Amino acid sequence: MTSTIEPQGAATPAPRGTLRRPADLARNIDVSGLVDTEGGLLDRVIFTDQQLYRQELRRVFAPSWLFLAHTDQFHKPGDFFTTYMGEDPVIVTLDRDRRIRAYLNSCRHRGARVCRAESGTTRNFTCTYHGWSFNLDGSLASVPNKDGYTEDFSADQWGLVEVPHVESYHGLIFGTWNPQPVPLRESLGDMAWYMDAMLDHDEQGTVVVGGVHKWVLEGNWKLAAEQFATDWYHVNMSHASALMVLAPSGKKPKDEVVHRTGRQYSDGNGNGAGFPVHPKNRFDARTVHEWMDYDALRARLGEARVEGPLTNGHATVFPNFSYLPVNGSIRVWHPKGPDRMEVWAWTIVDKSMPPEVREAQRLYNLRTFGPSGIFEQDDGENWSEVQAISHGFITNGVALNYQMGLGSEREDGRYPGTTSELYSDAAGRAFYGRWRELMNTPAWHEPAMRSTNE
Amino acid sequence: MSTSTEPTRSRAGARADRDTHFEVEQFYYEEADLLDAGRYTDWLDLLADDLDYWMPTRTNRLRRQQALSVAARGEAAFYDETRESLAWRIRRFDSGMAWAEDPPSRTRHLVTNVLVRHIDPEENADFTEDDLLVRSAFLVYRNRLEREENVFAGGRTDILRRTPDGLRVARRTILLDQSTLQAKNISTFF
Question: I want to staple A74 with a disulfide (CB 3.0 to 4.6 A). Which of A94, A288, A302, A420 is the partner?
Fold first, then answer.
């Protein structure tokens, strides 16, 4: 599947039928000194360095569970959606047995993408370069001029490279290249309790509004992922204009909005979620608010969740999937080099919502979040601004502060796992702690000896 | 057969005359001028109370599924607005804290390829043949801070209503010629 990675210094010639990739191509840097979770300090080089970025693709993205799509995007065999895992293009599709599968979107012959549409329905994936064609189960269906190959050529060795593990949780599909991953549900741990506040309002679950907002941002992917894990702090300043517009007086937001209390969850897997617990903490569309049956929700999810992560907040599932429960906004921060990311954002609604409530949720989300949203316009400005100046030699060497709420992490008995205050960098410290751990841990593909044609 | 007077020909669906084309183009230039000057509240005055302002997302699709390449109503859109919701968006610029436009961007709205027809009421029952169905192309250049640049190119299909106060935009569909938006945000209007 992947090239063999040699220990550094080895010079054994590769036997016929395999390739060997010298370890020098993937030199790893010890990042221990770049993240200080105890002191709350971060070295800015982790946002700018090309070599660290390549190491992230190998050691953070390749072994992690990565968000692919929503199950509602697949209804009949052949429905497909193309996306990325890290920088690797993948096709997600429903096969003839109605199983969701994912493949590397790259022809095994000369490497072109075999599907260049963003979504649709198809019977097979045919490479437009030389015409190799692949079935929905990834197998190689046909090769033009097959007689040109020797008898050794075996089609079953040249199917699309499959993402070995694809699992879903309440409609969210994740995949990982890790051949022996911790199961998705287990890796989510207590984070699942917080996710359920958005995904599990009733038996019917969620569906997705058609279409995906996609846009580019000149900023490192971690700036966004980290903010959604840990940062309610920015809301009052960054989004002051949006809060003003939403305020009933239209002048300035009420004190009770600005001076919120709440909790922020974090865990050792790098997941984070923050939420106010003020009873009037809703931002959302009135139509949605009035439709919600809060008594039924309390019975199903408990008061702590209804008064907290169900009504408002922010969250990141490590490394690069984030969501906003009040908007039904779910998004991926696709890495595109150290200085760029691409944001892909979907809107989800409860399947049980009548059409006018779904529409209210959709409109509220597109007017507040997404590239034209009155909140998110300003987020884009912040991240690109931070990135734009990060390459200055002196600038790059000045540590960043993640000290808010140092030592405040505790188990409070009301919310599962470890929580801190609403205004805290606790989940940011946990996010970068997990990042450091993965960056310093050889991934499965490093010591293993796997050949292209095993 | 002969008649003493020319029969009154219906203008429904017909290409508008030269004066009308000139009038519409001048209307668009005024709109562009207001937007480039950041005079959004004045721009709102050119929009009808029942405005439908829609900018759907677009997707790369297989050729045989091209019909699905523009998001449908009710799907993902960059704008799906009423006059009221546009006013709501515009109010934020007056807060003094809308950082995406502070310092303000420099924009230039160019409008061209203007084709004007009279409305055919059989196709648009809410309008009369005095109202106009207009297709146009736009190119919006944005330069921001030190070196940020964006080009938004696309097409618009409008229905302009003729009122005693002049033309007013009653319907506007905006098709941006991009699938992945090549900008960090959209903080202007089209």
Answer: A94
